Amino acid sequence: MNPYFVGFLVPIVVSLLLQKRRKVGNKRGVPVDVGGEPGYAIRNHRFEHPVETHWEGITTLAELFEKSCNEYLHMPLLGTRKLISKEMESSPDGRSFEKLHLGEYEWKCYAEAFKSVCNFSSGLIRSGHQNNERVAVFAETRAEWQIALQACFRQNITVVTIYASLGEEALCHSLNETEVTTVVCGQKELKKLIDISWQLDTVKRVIYINEEGISAELSLARNSTSWALESFDEIDRLGSEAPVDASMPLPSDVAVIMYTSGSTGLPKGVMMTHRNVLATLSAVMTVVPELGRKDIYMAYLPLAHILELAAEALMAAVGASIGYGSALTLTDTSSKIKKGTLGDASALKPTLMTAVPAILDRVRDGVRKKVDAKGGVVKKLFNIGYNRRLSAINGSWLGAWGVEKLLWDRLIFTNVRAILGGKIRFVLSGGAPLSGDTQRFINICLGAPIGQGYGLTETCAGATFSEYDDTSVGRVGAPLPCSYIKLIDWAEGGYLTTDSPMPRGEIVIGGPNVTKGYFKNEAKTNEVYKEDERGLRWFYSGDIGRFHPDGCLEIIDRKKDIVKLQNGEYVSLGKVEAALAMSPYVENIMVHADPFHSYCVALVVAARNELEKWALQQGVTYTDFTELCQNKEAVQEVLGSLAQAAKQTRLEKFEMPAKVKLISDPWTPESGLVTAALKLKREVLRKKYEDDLAQLYA
Known about the structure:
Elements: H1 3-24, E1 29-31, E2 40-44, H2 61-71, E3 76-90, E4 96-109, H3 110-126, E5 134-138, H4 143-154, E6 159-161, H5 168-177, E7 180-185, H6 187-195, E8 205-208, H7 215-224, E9 228-231, H8 232-241, E10 254-259, E11 269-273, H9 274-285, E12 296-299, H10 306-318, E13 321-324, H11 344-348, E14 352-355, H12 357-374, H13 376-393, H14 397-400, H15 402-417, E15 426-429, H16 436-446, E16 450-454, E17 464-465, E18 478-479, E19 484-488, E20 504-510, E21 517-518, H17 522-528, E22 529-531, E23 537-547, E24 553-558, E25 562-564, E26 570-572, H18 573-580, E27 586-593, E28 600-606, H19 608-618, H20 625-630, H21 632-648, E29 659-663, H22 682-688, H23 690-697
Parallel strand pairs: 3-13, 5-6, 5-7, 6-10, 7-8, 8-9, 12-13, 12-14, 14-15, 15-16, 28-29
Antiparallel strand pairs: 1-2, 2-19, 3-4, 10-11, 11-21, 16-17, 17-18, 19-20, 20-23, 22-23, 23-24, 25-26, 27-28
GO biological process, one term: phenylpropanoid metabolic process
EC number: 6.2.1.12
Enzyme class: ligase
């Protein structure tokens, strides 16, 4: 046989075999008999019982960190970029923006990090903090955050985690409810604390992280508060000079009281034991292949969020390196990066990162806008390459040929991958459902799998996880080995476990990762946590899901997001928002439905570049962006685009907003309108735009 023909035939045959295997599918989750409320339950296909620890003899997070530091002594662990300068730049409309000139990453190895943890741990006790008192960490994600966390664990001190973007009322509530006596904070956070100092009942000392320009806040704090003020470095020195023996925790001890981001009302403090968090880490170890010392992790999400806290704990456990950055300095074109300075990802070149859907949506939109702006041959090549890779993933042998993949990677996708450093091998998306379009787009452009996970603060981020070789989109994977996932009937919403072709219902999560409950909130704890007759703890999520035949879960709704319209139709607000977000004019959107009306309306944060580009093409004149958002033609253009997105995603007519209000200012965690994970604070938004919503219904 002609060798050239054989060389051509082999990849085709292999591809067809792979395609057949994909169609047959793997059983990733299997039915299991469990206790508690009747329902349809699934477990991980490889583990009959929930796992609690992956590491022999390790039962707490403090033990796990010490083990890693002894094992990976001289490997780099914590990386921070050197700040060269801060500069203010003015925009054409007169506003000023801070820009950072950042240098290379500077590293603490595992041995150095462990020494810092031990010093800070001893320093806390020497400064007067008692073991039975709580420490709050109120700062942006950074190396000092992680050191403070691990230091507290070594003295069995419970850490209260608080989002740096939290508003005054929620901040007061969190600190007072947990009776925090010591707060570790950064410069911006110190200013927030000073502003509410008269409302704080128990805070005795504040440990500040040294930053350029913090002297003004320190002077104000010394003059207006009775706190003992110590720098992070001073606590380290104090502990170094007078070490204190560790007081290691038990698995049942509360490691963290983590305050949720408060999408509705005041935040609730979730009590996580060492056993709870360790169960999630142990489970993830079984589903992401080859985690280890060759990996570099990009840390930029809030450490006050369980997704980031668990991810960093896992990285330290396997000998990986953690490089710190921020969402505002992540890429070369991020808003706080000075022109000509590398973004965090370019400087770090990470292999692993976590992301929330809102950030991945921005990456997708950014790539598309750049491609559209270049147009011509570049746009045609990108579209051809993208469609060929899409065919490969969907099982077409033509696009799966390895040589062709390499060709498109070199021609098109190398530049896209460079945005995040060029070496990403796995991305974990969590915090909210990721749209199938974004998941596929990022997967193709980065050339790396996106593992979509599902979990909640109340389950230490553990519930389900997409396995490495699962190329499907729109699903959140099979149960993690630490969890059973059960669906129970929600008859009111029309979701039943007897539904065909897939069982549907409210998602209930059981396992050692299910937390103790809410701090000082027994009523709410008893409402959503249950213990069955076999002693297994369950959490009732309020999310609605369905199981696919291979045992993977898909999130399809949320009980709180469903509103019944005047004519009896049910509108799932989250589902509609996800569909309409595909419009290029949408930066953010909140759909609102009123039971006393037969239609819904929407608040749309307009994508400035897209709307201004349309205005230029149409010859629409305006003095500023706020005026453009009030322009009737602009509103109609956005409505038309939303209608197109609704049609493409097959929304029902009653689900399409009849009227919209365009918003010119973005919704940010700092404004209190979205959470730190960029989820809508629906009730806060409703109150802020109460008059606008009333006009839309008028």
